[in-house]
Amino acid sequence: MAVNEVMMSKYQVKPLNPDNLKTYSLKERGSKVSAADFSRVCAPEASLKEFIDSLPNILGAQDFKDFLGFYQVARGKQKARIWGMGAHVIKVGLNPVLIDLLKTGWISGLALNGAGIIHDFELALVGQTSEDVGAQIKAGEFGMARETGKFLNAAIREAADEDIGLGETVGRALAGSNLPHVELSLLATAYDLNIPVTVHVAIGTDTIHFHPDCDGRALGKATLRDFYLFSSLVRELDNGGVYLNAGSAVVLPEVFLKAVSYVRNLGFPLKGFKTAVFDFLHHYRPDQNVVKRPLEGEGKGYYFIGQHEILIPLFAAALKSV
Predict the structure, then answer these.
(1) pLDDT digits (tens, 9 = 90+) for 260-270
(2) 148 touches 118 (CB < 8 A)
(3) Separation CA 92–CA 87 (nearest Å)
(4) In the chain, pLDDT over 70 holds for what percent of residues?
(5) 57-319: which CATH architecture?
(6) Segment (H or E) for 274
(7) DSSP result, 151-162
(8) Does residue 105 contact residue 77 with C-beta atoms inside 8 Å?
(9) N or C: which terminus of the chain has fewer CB atoms within 10 Å of its end residue's CB?
(10) What is the pLDDT of residue 99?
(11) 119 class by beta-carbon count within 10 Å (0-12 exposed, 13-18 middle, 19+ buried)
(12) Given this model, what pLDDT does residue 77 score?
């Protein structure tokens, strides 16, 4: 090709010319982000409320402030404030924070999975919990703590014999015990405060199920009764209540969805409430069964992602910074 020769495209399709593009003034365009919604610099001596107020009114920060305000209103009006909680929340050291929320009226009902009572008991007995599964399972020693199996399975049999729920019976047993660290127990505290606790068990998922004292019939009866009790708590969400799912990816989102359907089937209104998920990953079932499906057209759900050991203490402190 000669130096001054111009290479022409062989394509029949030509680039679309922008000469006739229609434009408008940026000043006239609507925008989703405004400087008015930006964060503000927070002084070192600022209060927690001032810090929360300084967050941007955008996306997750706006959701956090909205849910915080709705939760505060729910408590002020004595509407239901129910927490469904996976055991990981206990394992990362948050019982003192949760116990304070129970004592100060920020939680009116608590639902746990089966692992929740295991870690709560172990904290009450020895002040520590959460064994090294990888190390213990090699020798078949994972879940073989004698005291855990005996204490909890005895309480479960009492629940079936007396026709009361699993959560109430374990709470009663812990509250009436002289365990060295019982002040760390969520269930004992809730029992003393007359705050309902329900426990929702999938048989075979918890270490106490393969201990010789386990009675499957008693376990099923006690946890089924707790489902019906939980449904009564869910019924009270109507017109201003709050349901919060923290750290349960499968069991409690499934239980909540079924309870919502059960309550509505029995003819009780269940509208105008809010839900939120607090977890360190975005999971399918919490998103569908807590945030979306129960609320379609009836309320709003929120999903907050962050480490439990940071996000939940922050939320708890913010609740009280009214």
Answers:
(1) 999 999 999 99
(2) yes
(3) 9
(4) 98
(5) 3-Layer(aba) Sandwich (3.40)
(6) strand 274-279
(7) HHHHHHHHHHHH
(8) no
(9) N
(10) 98
(11) buried
(12) 97
Strand, coil or helix: 64: helix
Reading the block at residue 5, the tokens are 């020769």
Provide CB contacts within 8 A for 29, sequence distance 6+: none
- Name beta bridge partners: 111: 84, 198
Tell the burial category of 25 from Cβ atoms under 10 Å away from its Cβ (0-12, 13-18, 19+): exposed
pLDDT tens digits, one per residue of 265-312: 999 999 999 999 999 999 999 999 999 999 977 778 999 999 999 999
Closest CA to 224 of 252, 199, 205: 199
Tokens, residue 10: 């062989």
Measured over the CA atoms of residue 43, residue 47, residue 48 and residue 50, the dihedral's sign is negative
Question: Rounded to an integer, what is the distance from CA 46 to the centroid of its chain?
Answer: 29
Q: Which amino acid is at 159?
A: A
